[in-house]
Design brief:
Blueprint: E1 5-8, H1 14-21, E2 25-28, H2 49-59, E3 63-67, H3 79-98, E4 104-107, H4 117-130, E5 137-140, H5 153-163, E6 172-177, H6 178-184, H7 191-199, E7 204-206, E8 209-210, E9 221-222, H8 231-241, E10 245-247, H9 254-264
Parallel strand pairs: 1-2, 1-10, 2-3, 3-4, 4-5, 5-6, 6-7, 7-10
Antiparallel strand pairs: 8-9
């Protein structure tokens, strides 16, 4: 089958890195994923700024996705987290539009033990309501946390119902991370069908092996073939999803891309 496969790369030389590892798709951060500030997309981020980045990736035939900072948690009931999260997400969405990105991956977020999870779901709806963007928001399943909103299928169903009530619901999609699903207790043998039954779509796959056991709750990626996820399950998810694929493990991801291409035919 023909799916585009690539990897997470550095913003500064995305096209060169993509060529080196044979990536047809790239994912980038627009800012420090652990910080609340988004620096200007100028020559210091990429020579020629956003316009040059967009032109270079388009000329190379590379599709671009943006991963939002990890600090974002639009579900939070804490104003000092939720409000900056919405502001930061809007900045990232705007930047993603400027570079021609096909989507922005955002973790599903969490509430705390004392919170009503329904408030978290509705905070997601409000966040989508408030966004000004034509770029799809691709909510990603997460690996751990008893109060996560996108770890388990029952929570995902409630989250999806909430965001589908938002203005801009047509701009919301889904990213399936294989390591997160494995760690989060989702059965990879049926994950694609189970998630599509809820969301109706899978827009992007993060194809990562896991250093830990199924259901561990640990978000620790491994290169494909070096972790605990059976090869046939990884290939099965990618094949069934039929969506673009991004590999996200630190280090050389050329072998991961080649491994998937060989098995997908």
């Amino acid at each position: 089958m023909s799916v585009k496969i690539g990897a997470h790369v550095d913003l500064s030389d995305a096209v060169a890195q993509a060529a080196e590892i044979g990536a047809e798709v790239v994912q980038v951060f627009l800012s420090d994923p652990q910080a609340w500030k988004v620096p200007p997309f100028d020559d210091s981020a990429h020579p020629g700024g956003a316009e040059a980045f967009r032109e270079e990736t388009a000329a190379a035939g590379i599709d671009v996705y943006v991963h939002a900072p990890y600090v974002i948690n639009v579900a939070s009931t804490n104003n000092r987290i939720r409000i900056p999260s919405r502001k930061l997400l809007q900045q990232i969405m705007t930047g993603a539009g400027e570079i021609g990105a096909r989507g922005v991956v955002v973790h599903g977020g969490h509430v705390t033990a004392k919170d009503d999870p329904d408030v978290g779901f509705d905070n997601w709806r409000k966040a989508i309501d408030a966004l000004e963007t034509d770029v799809p928001v691709l909510i990603e399943n997460t690996a751990g946390g008893d109060f996560s909103l996108a770890r388990r299928l029952d929570r995902l169903e409630l989250l999806w119902a909430a965001v589908m009530r938002a203005n801009g619901a047509e701009n919301v999609g889904f990213t399936l991370d294989t390591c997160h699903a494995w760690a989060g207790g989702i059965d990879l043998a049926t994950a694609v069908d189970d998630i599509r039954a809820i969301t109706g779509r899978i827009d992007l796959v993060h194809a990562n092996d896991s250093r830990d056991a199924a259901g561990s709750g640990a978000d620790r990626h491994a290169h494909i073939g070096d972790g605990n996820i059976p090869a046939e399950l990884l290939v099965g998810v990618v094949a069934a999803a039929g969506a673009p694929v991004v590999c996200e493990t630190h280090g050389d991801m050329g072998p991961d891309i080649a491994w998937l291409r060989e098995r997908l035919g």
